[in-house]
Amino acid sequence: MPGPKTWQLTAGAAAVGLALATGAVALAGPWDSGQRTAERARAASRDARGGAHHQRPADPDAPAPAPSAPSVLAALGAAGDAPVTAALPAALAPLLADPALGPHPAASVLDTATGREVYASRADVAMTPASTIKIATATAVLTALPADHRFTTAVAASADGSALTLVGGGDPTLDRARLAALADDTARALRARALDHVRLTYDASLFSGTAVHPIGPNENLAPVVALMTDEGRTQVPSGSSGASGSSDAEESGPGARTADPAGDTARAFARLLRDRGVRADDPVAGGRPAGATVLASTSSAPLTEVVERMLTESDNDIAEALARQTAIATGKPASFEGGAAAVAAQLEKARLPSAGSVFTDGSGLNRADRVTARLLTRLLADAAGPAHPELRPILTGLPVAGFTGTLSTRYGATSAATGLVRAKTGTLGGAGVNTLAGTVVDASGHLLAFAFLSAGTPGADPAPAQRALDRLATRLTAH
Questions:
Q1: Catalytic: which of 108, 121, 131, 354?
Q2: The pLDDT of residue 83
Q3: Which of 108, 121, 247, 314 is catalytic?
Q4: Is 314 a residue of the active site?
Q5: Going by C-beta distance under 8 Å and a sequence separation of 6 or more, which residues neighbour residue 123?
Q6: Phi and psi for 392 in degrees, rounded to 5?
């Protein structure tokens, strides 16, 4: 159970951009506590105003200073032991009854300082979570692998160097820029051996089972294989830098996907080698030669950053890869089934309230997935607790209302919740499933974990349900 001062440890992350809630739009402030560099950079790009020292500059044409932090600190300085107001259930009940949320929504709100559930409605009913299941996927992989773990794509060479194998390490963030750098290193190593002609194979055997998601080929997810570039996209968005750590919204979401990510990556690698003066035969699938050694390699960002990227942008390809990496780390098959079983086992090992849960994938694209609102709030509370520092990337990776990721276009500059709500979104178009789960600092300084799940929402447009969910989260900031 979270300790009595849990909110103090994570309030900085949950309250990032509190100045927005008071109407300020100058966003370049001192957000180092729980706020990632990428979010600071993006904030600065949205408005030219800003300044690190919070003093009026001598030059009248210089940018005005950012809003100072005392109001943030004051808001978070309330006694964490003070009880959450008893009026909360009465405030939330009519909002949860909004017809836009369908006939039987579910909700759980938990005070992370005490571990007490302060509001519950059908909180123990397992429902389709959509992408909020990624919180469970993140919990599983962060408890199965060390925080600094990286996923490595390697080039293995035979003893004489004439046969190369591009070995997929299950890195879902490998992009064209890193593949080109790998070709640079490989070509340099071959020249050092006076070699200019190689046979090329590729090995994607780390993952097993069916590569195509049970929902079938889909623009939201490439075939899940251990070797791919740019998440199997056939086109990289214009303006993309190809940087492996990028999490800009335009580089996520739906897009045309190749049916053969591993083969396409190997063929691209062969072309890159040729561009560098190495005659590479057309690649074929196959294992590395006996006695092969690593000639060159490229690694992902640390696991913590990969998890943050998955959550901020609701990246399905990363989610499915992380479920398989959890399976590998825990001795299970690296398949859809093995990944789902590994996630469930990690939650059970942590003694979380997972009764009724059904895991079929890591992304939440499968409508057969089931979790409870209570499980989601407990996962978030554990991420906030001092006993589980390894789970902190779950909180720092949550999208910020009106600011980053899948919440960047929700709420708005005039919303009381902008900058205060951090939450994972979930939507299954055509299925009437809309969900929201995250954290918020209320007016009294409590860090609350919340989960709101809806199913059977009317109409094909998810916007009314999303607005209803946002109103629930916004209400938590004010009580």
A1: 131
A2: 59
A3: 314
A4: yes
A5: 106, 107, 108, 117, 372, 373, 374, 377
A6: -55, -35
